[in-house]
């Protein structure tokens, strides 16, 4: 049977060969004008089988299929002795068959059994393996009319990734064996035909840009015609690629030899082609183009006219700019001879500004275009299917060869066409792609290899890497109109090509790691020749730019014309949506970059890719010393890290493009979906970053912290319901904060902790520099941790509330903080390892965070500032660190306060000493038992802190000792603890005194007296000083009080100058008065302040000082005889001899009684009575006014039962004053009208009153007002009220005995008489009538401090006249009279008002 088949195949082969010869002769004869063999005898060998019969066998019979099926079935395991002849016959049949699909279909149908039968598929794999190995020699040695390969190999390669383990294992065994026998070329040949298909040709973008200006319309029309009707043909899904698709080699040869008319050969088109294309367009398009051209022309003319008449043209060259200015100037000069110099200057400035703006636009465009200059453009759409199929097969190959045999075979095999004739097509296609990329025609004849600038890759691995990079760089041009399926297909090709590159690089890493630094020159050559790192970085940068740029931001045409034509960016079609569609490519590029970083580390351990490129040969000889070489390396590194373009002499980690991309990667506009992948890249690449470690991780850490803070803010504002991170809508993974936190932990721990487990050794200098950079970023990280911890605390509170019966469910709404326990654990995992080696830096950073989290509102009446909720979150976070006990934390705080320069960088000016003390105060708010155990540490912190040169607020904040002492009143009475406590207190007082003395100066050179400097005073809250006296009382026990007096004396030595001079230091004066008020409350301190306080009390300016009521009270209380001595001096009037000083003495006496308590001085009433009688002997208006003030104080400070003896004196003095006022208002009988008219011109009204008289009358009225307003329960009904105010309305009384005895006068109250005289004189002059009042009044009525006219008492007097009369009869309608409520509804309110009014009257203004 085999002999028969062999004979028949030999006859067919011979017949086909003779038929081809005859056909060739016939074609040559027909092409020539005359027959060259005419007249000669010819011998023709006839084929054994005529061509017609051969044709009939091919078209009308199934001969080839039956023979192929028989031969394939004989390759089973039972007939191994026939395998060689079967394979020989099967291969000959495959080469002689009319199409390759005859034998291929039988193989593929068995490999891809329709029922997925495992046994059939395994048997088919075995038979293919036999066929594969036995055709190795036959395929290379046998000469046939047609030499063919088995493209069913693609099905076998695809089986490598089969889900059936037995199928993939069998295919794996075949692959390993084939690679060991150097069959890598045979395996790649059909795959390369897919990758080099003519439909995948591409051209460089700079070639297209050069020819685009003149031929844009031609390209547009051709591309439209080539893509018409293709949308229906591209309906298949990308994922359903047919592995049975093979490349027809015979048809492909025929296509390459001829020049197709339907394919654009070159971007350079002739004018005739352009005209023909324009003629083919319809009339509508012609009209539209004409309209557009006319519109463009008119716009251009208009812009030219505007620029020539109004402003200078937009040019970039300095010369043309100057010429433009000169031309504009000459035209304007001809139009108007009066062109001013100001107009010239404005015109020149405008031109300079526009030139600068144009320069900035050019620089910006240059930076953007540099990201697109590496790209290649497809001339037509549709070739992505071949590429995707070939790349998928390559991916299966590399994924299945995990032990790197494929890469090793590729690295040692070249594309040698001399050994295998069937590789000629691969070489031919490779050359055609190269010449098409350079702008030449893909079809037709080949150009000579010398015409190309670079030689084609020699090794197979270089070829595959170059092809994958070309697919990565290839895009559709913007003038094409590809379908969405085409765009998606090309993106899939780019992603798959990067995946293949990543597998190649990973296997190269394994090879480099095994060789351990030797024989790595081949890998270095691959990286340097293929420019793998450069194109990977450029592709990543371009993809990031495309993803963050909106689709609506197209370049402006006018700007393109001004800047010199279209940009590279405008030539690339990136699709309608440039955002999330770029993410798959970026994800794979990040994987590739990580593999390249690791590979560079193993290939170039020194970090420099090619030292020969970095240093010139003549310069290399001078770098003989290690220091010079290190300096040169550092300079080159700085140049590379700052470069905007790729630098060929440095690894990826030292490239400015990579550093810039890493710094911007986590910004919201680049997509939150990419952030986890960037975090993974940085974390896995940390050991390989080298010098760039600190430079890369610092901005990365800052951006992570900003993103975490934004998440927390979003959670606080709306609970995470809406996405407000960026303008575009994008879903963010729920575990996003955990991803950032884990990445931050990995980076921080690698830089700050010793990584002994790391398999990669790092330079100590690089790690130290990175450690310093990360320590500078610790405040930002701690701030983010505190914010996250605040979320954890709030969520725990909500959870506990939800567990209560009142709450039915948890109210948390944030999707990002649902996993509360895991978040808490991650925060602690970040902080706990840092507490021991970097505790001081951690606490210093915490101080910076504390200072930035200030409370929005100030809490007054608080000795120490109340920690806000954000600050308390910091405290709770520190308390959760179980590795840091209270003693350890206090020790770290002390170290930070002693050396607060731990924080540098952006926080360099931030002082953390005071924030640390504030934190320590908030932290020690722990149970008393825990505080008791750390007394020594706390006192040591205070003692060491007070010795430092802290800012003034720091010393007052050191008074946290007060809180400490008050919370532990029963402190252990050990002598060392007590001595340490008193020592701290003493140093605190010395520090406070030093602060007070910093604003004082000596009055003279030899004098020890001090005075306040004339400068602005800055004083802390006076409330901070309240704690000093209680603190001293607690620290110094009853038998140790005398020890505190010298301390207080030294402190008051600096305080009294502020109390003596308060003209321009009001804040300091108030603080000193507050301190003195607190200290004077303790009797044992009187020796430190008694003398000075009495001098201040007797000072003429005493009543210009506020807040002295308690001080005077303490002075008179602690000195039992002080009040009596003061009364005796006042009675003798020896101290005050002048008339002006006597009223002030009386005012001081009244203030002394006012400062005391109720009935505190009732035993001294005889002295007070003697004093009043003495003053009544020669009264003046000023004395009378102060006497009435004293009477009012007596009403408040002496009970009614003790005032019985004084009431006659007080009433008598009040009657005498009202009588004096009546006489002053009584006009003389003779010439009264003239006197009144003359008096009307006076400011005081009808009668001329001095200011002293007015003050006296006001004081008398206030005394009457106070007497009437006093509550009945405090003082019985004012018995003498009838003498001053009317109590009965006589006009409405109709009872008996209403007539008076003839000759008698009625008893009219003083208030009525005074009111009548004032109203009479007032109406005579001003002609005013009484006005009724509906205002609600209540006692006391008089609140004004002074009078300018006696008429200002009219409302008061009228109210008194109407308030105490009985109710009118019901038949009469009551007029609207000013009536005050008596008695008042609240006695307590009346007394409080009287206290406030009298206290305010003691205080004089500074100008008085």
Automatic annotation (TrEMBL):
Residues 275-288 have a biased composition (Acidic residues). GO terms for cellular component: cytosol; endosome; trans-Golgi network. Residues 970-1361 form the DOP1-like C-terminal domain. InterPro entries: DOP1, DOP1_C, TPR_DOP1. It comes from Oryzias melastigma. Residues 257-320 are annotated as: Disordered. It holds the Pfam family DOP1_C. This is DOP1 leucine zipper like protein B. Residues 370-754 form the DOP1-like TPR domain. GO terms for biological process: Golgi to endosome transport. Residues 295-318 have a biased composition (Polar residues). Coiled coil: none annotated.
């Amino acid at each position: 049977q085999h002999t028969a088949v062999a004979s028949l195949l030999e006859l067919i082969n011979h017949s086909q060969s003779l038929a081809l010869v005859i056909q060739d002769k016939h074609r040559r004869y027909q092409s020539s004008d005359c027959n060259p063999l005419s007249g000669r005898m010819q011998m023709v060998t006839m084929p054994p089988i005529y061509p017609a019969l051969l044709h009939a066998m091919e078209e009308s019979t199934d001969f080839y299929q039956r023979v192929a099926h028989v031969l394939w079935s004989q390759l089973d395991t039972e007939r191994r002795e026939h395998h060689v002849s079967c394979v020989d016959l099967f291969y000959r049949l495959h080469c002689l068959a009319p199409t390759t699909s005859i034998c291929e279909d039988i193989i593929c149908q068995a490999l891809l059994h329709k029922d997925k039968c495992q046994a059939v598929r395994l048997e088919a794999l075995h038979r293919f393996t036999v066929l594969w190995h036995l055709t190795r020699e036959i395929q290379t040695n046998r000469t046939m009319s047609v030499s063919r390969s088995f493209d069913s190999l693609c099905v076998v390669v695809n089986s490598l990734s089969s889900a059936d383990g037995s199928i993939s294992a069998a295919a794996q065994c075949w692959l390993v064996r084939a690679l060991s026998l150097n069959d890598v070329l045979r395996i790649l040949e059909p795959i390369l035909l897919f990758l080099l298909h003519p439909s995948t040709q591409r051209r460089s973008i700079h070639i297209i840009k050069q020819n685009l200006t003149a031929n844009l319309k031609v390209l547009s029309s051709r591309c439209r015609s080539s893509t018409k009707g293709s949308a229906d043909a591209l309906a298949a899904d990308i994922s359903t690629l047919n592995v049975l698709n093979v490349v027809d080699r015979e048809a492909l040869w025929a296509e390459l030899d001829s020049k197709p008319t339907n394919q654009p050969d070159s971007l350079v088109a002739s004018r005739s082609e352009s005209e023909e294309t324009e003629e083919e367009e319809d009339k509508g398009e012609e009209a539209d183009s004409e309209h557009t051209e006319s519109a463009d022309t008119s716009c251009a003319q208009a812009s030219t006219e505007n620029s020539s008449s109004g402003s200078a043209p937009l040019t970039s060259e300095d010369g043309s700019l100057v010429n433009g200015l000169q031309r504009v100037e000459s035209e304007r000069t001809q139009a108007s001879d009066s062109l001013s110099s100001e107009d010239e200057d404005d015109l020149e400035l405008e031109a300079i500004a526009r030139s600068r703006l144009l320069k900035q636009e050019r620089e910006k465009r240059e930076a953007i275009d540099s990201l697109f200059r590496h790209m290649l453009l497809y001339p037509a759409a549709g070739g992505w299917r071949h590429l995707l199929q070939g790349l998928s097969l390559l991916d299966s190959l590399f994924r299945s060869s995990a032990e790197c045999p494929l890469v090793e075979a590729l690295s040692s095999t070249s594309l040698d066409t001399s050994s295998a004739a069937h590789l000629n097509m691969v070489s031919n296609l490779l050359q055609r792609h190269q010449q098409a990329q350079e702008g030449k025609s893909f079809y037709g004849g080949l150009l000579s290899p010398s015409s190309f600038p670079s030689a084609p890759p020699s090794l197979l691995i270089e070829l595959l890497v170059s092809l994958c990079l070309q697919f990565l760089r290839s895009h559709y041009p913007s003038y094409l109109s590809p379908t969405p399926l085409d765009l998606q297909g090309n993106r899939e090709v780019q992603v798959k090509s990067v995946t293949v590159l990543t597998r190649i690089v990973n296997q190269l890493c394994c090879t480099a790691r095994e060789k351990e630094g030797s024989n790595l020159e081949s890998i270095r050559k691959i990286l340097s020749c293929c420019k793998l790192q450069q194109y990977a970085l450029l592709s990543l940068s371009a993809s990031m730019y495309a993803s963050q740029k909106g689709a609506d931001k197209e370049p402006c045409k006018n700007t393109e014309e001004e800047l010199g034509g279209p940009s590279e960016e405008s030539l690339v079609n990136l699709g309608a949506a440039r955002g999330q569609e770029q993410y798959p490519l970026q994800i794979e590029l990040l994987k590739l970059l990580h593999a390249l970083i690791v590979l560079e580390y193993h290939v170039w351990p020194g970090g420099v890719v090619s030292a020969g490129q970095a240093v010139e040969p003549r310069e290399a000889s001078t770098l003989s010393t290690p220091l010079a070489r290190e300096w040169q390396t550092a300079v080159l590194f700085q140049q590379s890290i700052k470069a905007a373009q790729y630098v060929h002499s440095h690894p990826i980690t030292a490239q400015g493009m990579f550093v810039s991309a890493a710094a911007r990667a986590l910004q919201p506009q680049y997509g939150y979906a990419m952030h986890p992948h960037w975090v993974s890249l940085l974390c896995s690449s940390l050991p390989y970053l080298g010098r760039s470690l600190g430079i890369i991780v610092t901005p990365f850490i800052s951006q992570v912290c900003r993103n975490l803070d934004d998440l927390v803010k979003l959670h606080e504002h709306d609970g995470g319901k809406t996405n407000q991170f960026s303008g575009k809508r994008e879903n963010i993974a729920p575990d996003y904060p955990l991803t950032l936190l884990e990445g931050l932990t990995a980076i921080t721990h690698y830089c700050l902790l010793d990584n002994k487990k790391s398999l990669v050794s790092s330079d100590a200098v690089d790690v130290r520099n990175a450690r310093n950079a990360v320590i500078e970023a610790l405040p930002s990280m701690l701030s983010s941790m505190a914010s996250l911890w605040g979320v954890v605390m709030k969520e725990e509170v909500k959870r506990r509330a939800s567990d209560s019966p009142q709450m039915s469910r948890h109210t948390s709404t944030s999707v990002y903080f649902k996993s509360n326990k895991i978040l808490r654990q991650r925060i602690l995992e970040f902080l706990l390892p840092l507490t021991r080696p970097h505790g001081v830096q951690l606490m210093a950073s915490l101080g910076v965070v504390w200072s930035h989290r200030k409370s929005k509102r100030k809490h007054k009446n608080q000795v120490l500032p109340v920690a806000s909720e954000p600050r308390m979150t910091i405290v709770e976070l520190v308390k959760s660190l179980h590795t840091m006990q209270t003693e350890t934390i206090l020790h770290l705080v002390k170290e930070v306060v002693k050396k607060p320069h731990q924080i540098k960088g952006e926080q360099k000016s931030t002082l953390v000493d005071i924030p640390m003390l504030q934190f320590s105060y908030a932290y020690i708010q722990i149970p008393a038992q825990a505080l008791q155990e750390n007394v020594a540490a706390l006192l040591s912190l205070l003692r060491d802190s007070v010795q430092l040169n802290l800012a003034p607020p720091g010393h007052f904040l050191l008074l946290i000792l007060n809180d400490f002492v008050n919370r532990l009143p029963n402190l252990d009475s050990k002598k060392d603890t007590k001595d340490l406590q008193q020592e701290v207190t003493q140093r605190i007082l010395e520090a406070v005194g030093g602060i007070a003395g910093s604003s004082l100066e000596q009055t003279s050179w030899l004098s020890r007296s001090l005075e306040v400097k004339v400068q602005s005073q800055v004083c802390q809250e006076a409330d901070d000083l309240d704690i000093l006296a209680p603190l001293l009382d607690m620290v110094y026990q009853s038998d140790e009080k005398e020890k505190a007096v010298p301390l207080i004396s030294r402190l008051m030595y600096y305080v009294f100058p502020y109390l003596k001079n308060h003209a321009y230091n009001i804040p300091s004066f108030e603080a000193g008065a507050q301190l003195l008020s607190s200290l004077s409350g303790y009797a044992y301190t009187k020796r430190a302040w008694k003398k000075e306080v009495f001098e201040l009390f007797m000072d003429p300016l005493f009543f210009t000082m506020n807040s002295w009521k308690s001080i005077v009270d303490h002075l008179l209380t602690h000195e039992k005889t002080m009040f009596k001595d003061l009364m005796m001096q006042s009675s003798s009037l020896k101290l005050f001899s002048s008339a002006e000083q006597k009223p002030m003495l009386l005012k001081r006496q009244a203030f002394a009684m006012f400062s005391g308590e109720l009935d505190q001085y009732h035993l001294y009433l005889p002295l007070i009575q003697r004093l009043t009688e003495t003053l009544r002997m020669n009264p003046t208006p000023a004395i009378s006014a102060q006497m009435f003030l004293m009477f009012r104080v007596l009403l408040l400070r002496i009970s009614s039962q003790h005032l019985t003896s004084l009431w006659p004196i007080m009433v008598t003095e009040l009657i005498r004053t009202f009588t004096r006022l009546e006489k002053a208002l009584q006009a003389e009988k003779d010439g009264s009208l003239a006197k009144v008219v003359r008096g009307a011109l006076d400011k005081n009204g009808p009668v001329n009153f001095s200011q002293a008289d007015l003050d006296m009358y006001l004081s008398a009225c206030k005394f009457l007002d106070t007497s009437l307003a006093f509550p009945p329960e405090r003082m019985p009904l004012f018995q003498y009220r009838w003498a001053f105010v009317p109590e009965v309305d006589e006009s409405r009384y109709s009872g008996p005995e209403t007539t008076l005895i003839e000759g008698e006068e009625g008893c009219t109250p003083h208030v009525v008489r005074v009111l009548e005289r004032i109203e009479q004189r007032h109406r005579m002059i001003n002609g005013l009538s009484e006005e009724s009042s509906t205002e609600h009044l209540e006692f006391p009525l008089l609140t004004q401090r002074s009078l300018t006219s006696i008429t200002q008492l009219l409302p008061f007097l009228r109210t008194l006249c109407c308030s105490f009369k009985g109710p009118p009869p019901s038949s009469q309608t009551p007029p609207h009279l000013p009536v005050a409520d008596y008695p008042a509804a609240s006695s307590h309110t009346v007394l409080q008002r009287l206290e406030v009014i009298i206290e305010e009257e003691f205080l004089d203004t500074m100008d008085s």
